[in-house]
Amino acid sequence: MSTYEKVEEKLEEENLNEEVKKNLEERKYRLLEEKKELEKDKKDWTEQVKEWGKALREFAGGKESLKRKPENDQEEAYIKKIKGSEFSPSEAAKPINWRKIQLENSEYAFYNHRPADASGNPVTLQHEIIANLYDDLRYINPTARDYDFALKINYEMSGITFSSEDERRESFKTCIYETYKIALNQYTYNNITTDGTILGGNGKYMLSNLEVKPEMGTVNCCPANQTLVYYAKHVANEFSTDTRSIIRLPCILLYLAGPYIGMAGAIQGNKFLCDPLSPTLPLLFTQHYQEYMLSVAKFFAAYKKALDNLGEYYKNPSHDEPSQLSFPYIRSYKHLDTNLKINFRYIKQLHEDKLLFLIELEDEDLPSQLIVKFAKKYGNDAHLVCANLDIAPKLFGIEKVSGGWFMVVMEYLDGYEAISEKPSAQIQQQICTATQKMHQAGYVHGDLRHSNILTKITNGNTKVVFIDYDWADGDGKATYPPFLNLGIPRHHDVSPGGHILKEHDEFMVNKYKN
Fold first, then answer.
1. Element at 313 (helix H, strand E)
2. 70-88 burial by CB neighbour count: b if 16+ within 10 A, else e?
3. Model confidence, pTM
4. Contact at 8 Å (CB) between 63 and 23?
């Protein structure tokens, strides 16, 4: 949805006050005028507006400038916003105040999915310890100690005799200390006090922070938001700009509301990012649903392991280039043919909503610039086969990395453009030929939208390549993702989670024929 469409949608909502409505009307008028000018120049106005500023969020006051500020100015503005906030963490976490904090400026203060489009790059790509924690929460093998603790904490937190938040908090902290020697001590700074914090690196760095509510739904504030604000205020007030610009500052956040606990990962790297790492788990004595108690055992086994790793990390945290801090922590890949380690640095993210990066290599024997893509699922074999057929970017590396990610390193297709929705007859023929080659090799793609078909004309010769092999696989094996955009015209048999068939690819390709 374009920025202009978002403004129109917002204007249709009820209960907008007159000031907000007026600001949105002004924003709509400006965007319409900008769109007209950009169309005169035959530019993609949506992408141009994104270069000036982020896409309009759920709400916009109309006061911010569309012109993008330098990155350092952006960082300092939101750090100052955290420092100078009128709200304590407990007040900030109340819904009415959270809305004000998040929506009063052109940039969100926190990228923690509240609201839905307050999303940045995944924290599991920002630090390896957080990525490993994500994996361990799912796959770690608990020990006898972990199983015993799960029984103990479930029995304790199931109690109904807690008369206050303090009693529940101290009971939880006592249990975890007795088993793991994890000391979640209250930490006071800038006239605020946490429920429980673990500091490392001579007391300078926040490894973990706990927020407790006596029961779910009490106190009218979100404990997940509150523990994040404590972390952000610590980072904003305790570290200089120079330190924040070269050190990644990961932290594990816990939130306990009654007998329900959750975990999130937070990190500061030119903005405050926060993602949930676990579902909210019941700390209930559910002897007939032991899978829940098994999840609790994994939860605390993974937490203990990650705390130990963070403790070691913060003894001497690694320094990064300021220009690299907002990018993923991974800075090398294994070459597909030689298995040699190839170092690289990031140049830019090609799209703010896609994990697609332009990189620069340090090896002079390889192309100077390549593309790195991160995906949860990828059609490795399909891409390799199509690359060998010369209808896909050449692959230089593909490997599974922590956090459930595939890292794909491929050719940078300089000078290629996405086809139009009504391409020339020559391009149509090239698309049909490429599709036939892929199908004859035994593979299907599943997402042959025009944006995934690139073309380049050199000396009168047209070349077509397919990109985005996330869903691609062998014919009869490939399946669509569960959350499929059904707003895109597809074959009538296409369904979320269903098999991808050759006729589905052919249906999309046939749409490009005049």
1. helix 290-313
2. eeeeebeebbebbeebeeb
3. 0.84
4. yes
